[in-house]
Amino acid sequence: MSDVTQPAGAGAMPSRLTDNSQIVLVLLLLALCIGISLAASQFYSVENVIAILRQCSLVLIVGAGMTMLLIAGEVDLSVGASLAFSGCVAMDVTNKTGSVFLGALAGILFGGVVGLFNGLVVTRLKVNSLIATIATMMILQGGVFLYTREAVQNKHQQPAFTEISTGYLGPIPLPVIIAAGVFVVAYIVLRFTTIGRYIYAVGANARAARLSGKQPESLKLIVFVVTGLLTGLAGLILASLMNTGQPTAGRGFELTVIAAVILGGTSLLGGRGTLLGTLLGVLILKVIDNGIIILRWDQNLQMVVPGVVIVLATYLDLLRRRADAR
Length: 326
Known about the structure:
There is one protein chain. Helix 3 packs parallel to helix 8, helix 5 runs antiparallel to helix 11 and helix 12 runs parallel beside helix 14. The chain is about 75% helix and about 0% strand. The longest helix has 27 residues. The protein has a single domain, classed as ABC transporter involved in vitamin B12 uptake, BtuC (Orthogonal Bundle), CATH 1.10.3470. The chain is mainly alpha-helical. It contains 14 helices and 4 strands.
């Protein structure tokens, strides 16, 4: 494999992460499950397991895109606001057209347009992605209220809309199946395709990738759009679950996604990460959230945990990079 597809020191195609960090995450997940189940026997009930999987699905869908984006050396802090706005668009278009399909398509495409906007600002205007997506987040948080003024109700009470989130395929909830499909496709792209190798290469050393004839800006633009489309899909599912488009639904969602992704070993500095790690990170955070609920602890802890995870995971990533440099 060439130096571009697997840059030195980048940890690109991540055997070391798989061998080390992910084993630790699996052990941590097992310890959490055992500990919570000893304190609350209902943890392993079928209903509770399904609830955890439902909660994981939204974060994993957006987390798949965020993983690719962080590996490419960028970040998107607007996904929470885009999630809420996409849900409102999906519900509004469904109400106005009477078509669940058109509403779903509109919500997903709106997320894609937000991703395209972010990508153009970052790649064409050369604005740092952290600053650019914070600005987009603010625009969306205000713009959604200009668009709808209030929550958008399911006026026609179309069961097909709510089925998106509450339906089952056999014993498995549809959101879980959708999330699994997104995960599998994203995993194949990152692990087995040329574009996946380029994503790692660009995140590890964009200059070297450019000198090798690649186009980092075009690749980053594509990944921003993909992340936006996945955010729109998650917004559609959330609106279906609530049976309403709620303008404030995505507050704090971006922090949960980023916390799960970097907990899974993806570097904020780019060039390193795996989707399997992201899956484990999502499961750990959502098991903790579920434990807080069934143990009847203060639910404000659900916002505290991602913040702590971001700090610790970022620090561990810096330690890993220093070790690689030595």
